[in-house]
Amino acid sequence: MAHQPDTVVPPMRDDGLPLATSDSAAAANAADSDNMPDRSLLSDIEAAWQDGKTYASAELAFQKTRARFTTAKLKSVAIYGIAAAFVAVLALIGLTVGAIMSLATLVGPLAATLIVVAILLLVAFILAKRAGQNWTALSGAFSSGEQP
Q1: Torsion angles phi and psi, residue 11, rounded to 5
Q2: Are 58 and 52 in contact (CB under 8 A)?
Q3: Which helix (H) or strand (E) holds 11?
Q4: What CA–CA distance (Å, rounded) separates 95 from 102?
Q5: pTM higher than 0.85 for the full model?
Q6: Are 103 and 116 in contact (CB under 8 A)?
Q7: For residues 112 and 100, is the Cβ–Cβ distance under 8 A?
Q8: Domain segments of the chain as ranges
Q9: Looking at the DSSP assignment, which residues form a beta bridge with residue 12?
Q10: 18 near 11, Cβ under 8 Å?
Q11: Comparing C-alpha atoms, which of 127, 118, 84, 85 is closest to residue 99?
């Protein structure tokens, strides 16, 4: 009768760890399932409820952080936007005064003022007309289609 060894040495990998085979994996899973306590539906529902509460609190914390970040950035946008608009208005005033002074040497101060003001009013009229057209198109998009 042939003598069999007491232990079986599993095949080894290059790093010295045992090579997992389907037999050894099945044996490990069977051993793990023997050690697992019986779970009930109630404990699974309770675990799902706890996971849901954890997820909800994490999502709430994330959204609060996101809102604080957004608020801080919106404040910066508003401050820098207002400052940029103010500086742009100052530049346009300087351009207007410079145009009047330049034209004054050619046609006189009163005529230069009237020319610059007329050009600015013409530009303002064109811009207001375009704004009115866009407003009409926008309000038409939201109307019910019925004419009074």
Answers
A1: -60, 145
A2: no
A3: none
A4: 10
A5: no
A6: yes
A7: yes
A8: 44-139
A9: 18
A10: yes
A11: 118
- Gap between the Cα atoms of 145 and 80, Å rounded: 41
Going by C-beta distance under 8 Å and a sequence separation of 6 or more, which residues neighbour residue 109? Answer: 100
Torsion of CA 121, 126, 129, 131, to 10 degrees: -100
Other beta carbons within 10 Å of 58: 10
Q: How far apart are CA 119 and CA 116, in angstroms?
A: 5
State the pLDDT at residue 140: 84
User: At residue 63, what is the residue type?
Assistant: Q
pLDDT digits (tens, 9 = 90+) for 21-72: 555 555 555 555 555 556 788 889 999 999 999 999 999 999 999 999 999 9
- Alpha-carbon torsion (109, 113, 116, 118), positive or negative: negative
Cβ contact 143:137 at 8 Å: no
